[in-house]
Known about the structure:
Layout: H1 3-19, H2 25-72, H3 81-87, E1 88-96, E2 107-113, E3 117-118, E4 123-124
Amino acid sequence: xxxxxxxxxxxxxxxxxxxxxxxxxxxxxxxxxxxxxxxxxxxxxxxxxxxxxxxxxxxxxxxxxxxxxxxxxxxxxxxxxxxxxxxxxxxxxxxxxxxxxxxxxxxxxxxxxxxxxxxxxxxxx
Length: 125
């Protein structure tokens, strides 16, 4: 039973307790106010949680697609255009830390994989 149904059942019992005199009107008002606030809070949060669940489903599906594709290339000895086009959606090369340095400097490279997205801090060369 989900929390919304539990609250509805509790509210119904609370109302019945008030009607038959087990609790007074002030107690009913205070308790019913708390239940109503919690129900409103649940109603507000539900669409956000549903969007988060859908995003997680999409990520899971993307990860499964990526694994299926990656299994095809288990022993890569050379990075070919076919592999790049199949597995990678986009490569983003960031700014060099020092634009005028004559020696090697760090530069952020972001790789977005098809169906999977970006792996955080994948590479920094």
